[in-house]
Design brief:
The complex is a heterodimer.
Chain A lengths: L27 H17 L14 E6 L5 H12 L3 E6 L11 H10 L4 E6 L4 H8 L3 E7 L5 H13 L8 E5 L6 H12 L3 E5 L8 H4 L3 E3 L2 H4 L5 E4 L15 H8 L3 H4 L7 E3 L12 H4 L6 H30 L1
Parallel strand pairs in A: 1-2, 1-3, 3-4, 5-6, 5-8, 6-7, 8-9
Helix pairs in contact in A: 1-5, 1-12, 2-12, 3-4, 5-6, 5-12
Chain B lengths: L2 E11 L4 E10 L2 E5 L10 E5 L4 E4 L1 E6 L12 H10 L2 E6 L10 H14 L3 E6 L13 H7 L1 E5 L8 H11 L6 E3 L4 H4 L4 E2 L2 H6 L3 E2 L1 H18 L3 E3 L5 H12 L4 E5 L2 H4 L21 H13 L4 E2 L8 H4 L16 H10 L6 H16 L14 E11 L18 E11 L2 E5 L4
Parallel strand pairs in B: 1-4, 1-5, 6-7, 7-8, 8-9, 9-10, 10-13, 11-12, 13-14, 14-15
Antiparallel strand pairs in B: 1-2, 2-3, 5-16, 16-17, 17-18
Helix pairs in contact in B: 1-2, 2-3, 4-7, 7-8
The chains are: A alpha/beta, B alpha/beta.
Chain lengths: ~325, ~425
């Protein structure tokens, strides 16, 4: 390893976790470590384009039980940028289709010698179950409507890059909160770092119980718009809805779509975010998605940065554990 | 048959309002005398010392899933009836949800023969309300009664069809047999896996709203009133159900209800583990429902406690919360779970507990048991109220090892079980 370039990223002592399962259970300090590390790695890799051999010789398994292209590729790229190998596994055509439980599938993949399992599944809690069954690190890449921690982190990193401290920010999550793992990860992450979080959407998709948990709930975007520093426009998840929770897409767009007209009534420095894939004309119009306030593509780049940070931190903690055992 | 004399035990028999040290003489499978004089004892008598123990009528369960035929990887008639004994149950009503379901006299006969062979707890048969448990047409209820069925239920499927329930309640009046409904409106329950509330919101899991139960109970009690049929709703798990039941009882309408032990001892935050052991029916509710249920059991609004024994093989439970089935093993933990949740905390005394778990369910089912009055069938148990034990999933007689109580410390343990005057179970410590 002598011929490697000197690594300028020091491993933070306060980081001890071997798994990244959700943001709800992380402390503000841990979230800040993840964001700081992501920023350092982003800078050290020339905006996630250059390779750093921090994790050479290690292997990352993508174990996706639900379809994904962007998150899967983002994790793969993050692993490769840090010099790790990747192995891809998808449920279609695999042994899951033959009746194997997801736990047995994951154990099989682990036995092939992997250091991280990145998993996506339609049921909440599946990464948590895996973390108790596997010895390698588990990263949650989305567990049903529960959490998608790296998405929450990349959203927060994007917000942070635009300068204002979280404590001074009002962030609205708009749309299908009920079915959104992105919403839940943002909700906890932003709350822990001190932002004011507004949860906004149709009453059938935004439970009043969020107020019991200390969040502002709104059902009309127009009422909250002038106060918002950041809007995170969530996709309507038609595929998860059992019954249609609103009368029509037309009505949804009229009430919640971010349009040029609504931009005119927003703060002049508002940030427009969307986790994607975006439905143009449903939650966002093209002029907003492609406009000067949109940071949607920055989010994508930051996705690689936070995933590099997560892989590196989990790996470091696992190595330290192994060292302690030896 | 020799006689049996149980001495020095604390006799708790709510059917006679007894709670005192007494000795009980059993002859010919029935209670012959309470506190007989030495001169009244037969020449040949087996003595059992019950010092420090509670002597009570054997427990009665209104709804035990035995899974045989068709799902014997979960439980069999033999394993379930032996598990019942170990938990202090001398009589159980087996559920109709076997494969094929118990909707014909032949199916009733099958259970009765297997039960006789097992020679453990008494097994009574619950027949289906509807043909093939499909919830559409009424099954041959009269022929099922003739074959020996003592009650009717499609549980765990709810009787969702209003017309079917009304017709069955009406029809059953001529047999004086009860209908059990598991109250749940399917379209409101949807794909729920846990109590709908703050926890389900945070965890992103599909919820089972309380109103899915409340609406079904409201419908049930109204149809019971309209028909005069014997209706038992259970298990119930919500404050709304309690409220409805309390109101109709105050108006003199004949409805009974039951709860499950897990709903008296645990709440929904257990699901934070995402462990399918906590995916049970009824779902673990929030703390205020748990507290309301405890109070309703103590004050008699809820008549009885049923085990909620829904055994499912380990391989089925070792999955995620959407895929794993509802269910748990309960026969061997029910009594101790209720004692731990309610008697230890002085919410309920021993006499009331025996009433809710033995006397009341026997009366609801219209079967013998639930009393140790002279002449009653000698189905009785001895309980060591001081014994503490840890729930060990590997030590059950049930084929199912999955329980939300795994690893919990519970108070009190059954030491002897006597069925028809015969000691059929002794705990290992005895």
């Amino acid at each position: 390893m002598d011929d490697e370039p000197a690594v300028t990223v020091p491993f933070p002592d306060a980081w001890t976790r071997r798994h990244l399962l959700d943001l709800e259970s992380l402390s503000a300090e841990e979230i800040t470590i993840l964001l700081d590390t992501a920023q350092q790695l982003k800078d050290a890799t020339d905006n996630c384009r250059r390779k750093l051999n921090l994790l050479a010789g290690k292997t990352c398994a993508n174990l996706f039980f639900e379809n994904s292209t962007r998150t899967r590729n983002s994790f793969s790229l993050a692993a490769k940028r840090l010099g790790a190998d990747t192995v891809e596994f998808s449920s279609a055509g695999s042994s899951v289709a033959k009746g194997e439980t997801f736990i047995d599938t994951a154990k099989t993949i682990e036995a092939m010698g992997v250091d991280w399992v990145v998993t996506r599944h339609s049921t909440p809690g599946t990464p948590h179950l895996l973390s108790r069954e596997l010895r390698c690190s588990v990263l949650n890449a989305g567990d049903g409507p529960h959490e998608h921690p790296t998405q929450g982190l990349l959203d927060m990193l994007t917000i942070r890059q635009h300068g204002k401290p979280f404590a001074d920010l009002t962030v609205a999550l708009v749309g299908d909160i009920a079915h959104s793992r992105t919403a839940r990860s943002n909700i906890w992450g932003l709350k822990k770092l001190g932002a004011h979080v507004i949860i906004c959407g149709p009453a059938t998709l935004v439970s009043p119980r969020w107020e019991e948990l200390g969040f502002e709930v709104a059902h009309r975007l127009d009422d909250i718009l002038p106060r918002c520093d950041v809007l995170n426009l969530l996709r309507v998840q038609f595929e998860r809805q059992v019954d249609r929770p609103f009368p029509s897409i037309h009505e949804y767009a009229a009430l919640y779509a971010m349009t040029g007209e609504r931009m005119a009534r927003s703060k002049s420095d508002i940030l427009i975010m969307a986790p994607g894939p975006i439905n143009r004309g449903v939650e966002i119009t093209p002029e907003v998605a492609d406009g000067p306030h949109s940071v949607i593509l920055e989010q994508v780049t930051n996705g690689i940065a936070v995933r590099m940070a997560a892989l590196w931190l989990l790996s470091g903690a696992a190595e330290r554990d192994r060292g302690a055992d030896a | 048959m020799t006689s049996l004399l149980i001495e020095n035990g604390r006799l708790v028999d709510p059917s006679q309002s007894l709670d005192r040290v007494a000795r009980v003489l059993v002859t010919g499978g029935r209670v012959a005398a309470i506190d007989p004089g030495d001169g009244d004892l037969p020449a040949q008598v087996q003595r059992l010392d019950a010092s420090g123990k509670i002597l009570a009528p054997g427990l009665v369960d209104l709804s035990t899933e035995l899974r045989e035929p068709g799902r014997d990887e979960d439980e069999t008639i033999a394993s379930g009836s032996h598990a019942a004994l170990a938990g202090g149950y001398t009589s159980i009503l087996c559920s109709s949800n076997t494969h094929p379901p118990i909707d014909s006299p032949g199916a009733v006969e099958f259970v009765r023969q297997k039960a006789a062979k097992a020679h453990a707890a008494r097994i009574y048969v619950t027949g289906c309300v509807s043909k093939q448990r499909r919830g559409e047409e009424m099954a041959e209820l009269g022929l099922l009664v003739e074959a020996g069925a003592v009650a009717f239920s499609d549980s765990p499927a709810p009787l969702a069809n209003n017309a079917l329930l009304k017709r069955a309640l009406d029809y059953c009046r001529m047999f004086d047999r009860p209908i059990f409904d598991r109250p749940q409106v399917p379209e409101l329950a949807g794909r729920g896996v846990m109590h709908e509330g703050r926890e389900s919101l945070v965890l992103g899991l599909n919820g089972l709203p309380t109103e899915a139960e409340d609406l079904a109970v409201a419908r049930d009690v109204r149809l019971a009133e309209a028909t005069g049929g014997r209706l038992h709703v259970g298990p119930v798990s919500t404050m709304g159900s309690i409220d409805l039941i309390r109101r109709v009882k105050s108006r003199g309408i004949q409805v009974t209800a039951s709860v499950c032990p897990h709903n008296l001892s645990m709440s929904d935050e257990k699901l934070r583990s995402f462990d399918a052991r906590f995916k049970v029916h009824p779902p673990l509710r929030s703390v205020r429902h748990v507290e309301a249920l405890r109070a309703a059991v103590a004050d008699g609004t809820i008549d009885s406690i049923q085990t909620g024994h829904m055994p499912r093989a380990l391989e089925k439970k070792m999955d995620d919360l959407d895929v794993a089935p509802f269910g748990m093993t309960s026969l061997e933990t029910a009594l101790a779970a209720v004692v731990t949740a309610m008697v230890r905390s002085n919410v309920m005394d021993w006499s009331t507990l025996i009433q809710r778990m033995s006397t009341a369910p026997a009366k609801i089912a219209g079967i013998e048991g639930g009393s140790l009055a002279v002449g009653a069938v000698a189905d009785m148990i001895l309980i060591d109220p001081e014994q503490r034990w840890r729930v060990d999933e590997t030590a059950f007689r049930s084929r199912c090892s999955s329980t939300p109580l795994a690893g919990c410390e519970l108070h009190s343990r059954v030491t002897h079980v006597i069925v028809g005057g015969e000691i059929r179970y002794r705990s290992e410590a005895e």
